Amino acid sequence: MGNTIQDQDSEECQIQKNLFNFECPIGRGGYGKVWKVELKKTKQCFAMKEMSKFRVIRKKSVSSILNERKLLSIIKHPFVVNMQYAFQDKENLYLVMDLMTGGDLRYHICKTRRFTESQAKFFTACIFSGLEYLHVLGIIHRDIKPENLVFDKKGYLRITDFGIARLISSDNSKETSGTPGYMAPEVMCKRNHGIAVDYFALGVIVYELMMGKRPYTGRNRNDIKEQALSKQILLKKSDLPAGWSIESADFVNKLLQRKPENRLGTNGPSEVKNHVWLSDVQWSSLFAKTLVSPFIPSNSENFNASSQFDFKEELDGFIPLDSIDEIFKGYFYNQHSGEYKPETTQSFRGKNRSWL
Which of 34, 88, 123, 318 has an alpha carbon within 20 to 30 A of 114's alpha carbon? Predict the structure, then answer.
């Protein structure tokens, strides 16, 4: 016999805030705080996103927040920051995720500025491994950038933040969400887009690791858009820092093609994986995480977290509590319950799909 509704309701009540010890804040976002927490029963540590329901509603981000939780429930991979639990109380939503103690890539770019080719290649292999998995599932991340790539203690990168990720759609031209500087031209121009947008962003990141700056910069979104549309990046051997190969330049050049039909990865992840620059990557050892990373974050503080997290809620109008409860109804997930079956994952396998 399966669980009854009463059993399921009882299980939801088992995941509550008071089951965790809150150790310290490690970040903040637009909706609240990120904490390092310890599950009292197992002593295992996690990262917990605490998001104010009022802020989510005020910023008109309900669909984004619910979409992220839905996608995270079908994702489980060693190169993604996985969700372990999701629950709520009257005021907040809570996402309990894998704890990554190495800090995000942006933090380390600001500290290190440039990286060696071997470091950049290792980072690229990690990012690609996560993207390949997502793309096979039919998911486009759409916001690949250093802030959304975090290190574990062994120096392996994982992908996080699925707020604007979406399942591949034949009509997504009106969805222009993303981050200027990493956003592909077809997104900026409000055209239909596919997995190639994530590979354009990967190209920007490799360029940044190589050159110490992004290929397209500007004072605002329009400046960056104008540069990206008018200037095709074409790195030459003479442009490269000492120690970088011409194969690395070719990899970046092919990822940063303005037209998606010319871009590496448009026809599927294998195009990227089989590029000559990545030919010496030991993929099975990388997946097993038995390789020694060429960049291992120190044991010191790796977060740009402020100790001041208090803020005032400024709401336009009154929102009845029963309305809020209805909006976020079902915001619950337990990775360890054994109940979830990723039907969406299965539905995308075995389908012939266009990567465009």
Answer: 34
